[in-house]
Amino acid sequence: MSDTSDKLEALRQRIDQLDSDVLRLISERAICAQEVARAKLAEDASTVFYRPEREAQVLRRIMELNDGPLDDEEMARLFREIMSACLALEQPVKVAYLGPEGTFTQQAALKHFGESAVSLPMAAIDEVFREVEAGAVNYGVVPVENSTEGVVNHTLDTFMESSINICGEVVLRIHHHLLVSENTRRDKVSRVYSHPQSFAQCRKWLDAHFPHAERVPVSSNAEAAKLVKTEWHSAAIAGDMAAKLYGLERVAEKIEDRPDNSTRFLIIGSQDVPISGDDKTSLVVAMRNQPGALHDLLEPFHRHQIDMTRLETRPSRTGVWNYVFFIDFKGHYAEPHVAAMLEEVRLRAADLRVLGSYPKGVM
């Protein structure tokens, strides 16, 4: 046997031993998770098993300890799946998302909760809210903003009518592909299906490569992928999950006009989330219609040195030409300097509601 063969055999034996060690340690972790569940149930039969702040702290710690060669996000993704499987031993997490199956929102749900979560598609954003409010699911996942196309107004408007909390966030890099089926005649494509936002995000690529193809907007990219399965002259713009679900082939990959195209999703639930150490807060504020109202709203943020990351304005449901402000900022509402700022704003506002404080997206 050559020196190379001897070295390869030794490495394979080492990998086999490491695999055995990893398997044993994962099993030990799973047993610990079961013991945690029993301890929680002994103390409170209605206990909440999923703790967003604890999950975020564990993943941050893993990324800080990681020395490679796998990058931090890949290592965190692996641990997310281990945590998801262990949590399922305690109690599977049920998550509603804006469907149908195969959408980017489902991809965001699985990125945040792991593949062991039970994900349920809903036809509309307000249905996701209703499922959470009714207690039919533990959490919901809804899109709130895209780096190219801006805010999702329907999500913001639904918060004005709901008492549900924001428990987390997840940012997903959005990659669009041109997909065809095995029946597609690629030289005869005359129609492209996709969601209107995806068309907007791929406009330049389509203009350059399919300038004469009819662009047919549909309710979701998953629906676009489904339609392509039944037609010989059409293609779809969708992501990896839809391609896999419907068995489509990627003719062109990553056709979005901006390589940094990302969508932010919110995790909604009924619980308050304790401080994790790196948090964000979202609130909705109604100001009185008077000169200087916006200045009065923003001044306490500046004075308390609180970093506001987003400010959106939406028409109020209570009067013509009245507006409410949706605000995201760094910090947790339970931190003393944040609590002091919020109290000042509350005194100046007609109404203020904290939608939630939650861990900043880890991955």
From TrEMBL:
Protein's pathway: Metabolic intermediate biosynthesis; prephenate biosynthesis; prephenate from chorismate: step 1/1; Amino-acid biosynthesis; L-phenylalanine biosynthesis; phenylpyruvate from prephenate: step 1/1
Primary location group: cytoplasm
Subcellular location: Cytoplasm
GO MF annotations in UniProt: prephenate dehydratase activity
Pfam families xref list: ACT, CM_2, PDT
Catalysed reactions, as listed in the record: chorismate = prephenate; prephenate + H(+) = 3-phenylpyruvate + CO2 + H2O
Domain of life per record: Bacteria
Main function: Catalyzes the Claisen rearrangement of chorismate to prephenate and the decarboxylation/dehydration of prephenate to phenylpyruvate.
Name this polypeptide is given: Bifunctional chorismate mutase/prephenate dehydratase
Organism, scientific name: Vreelandella vilamensis
UniProt gene name: pheA
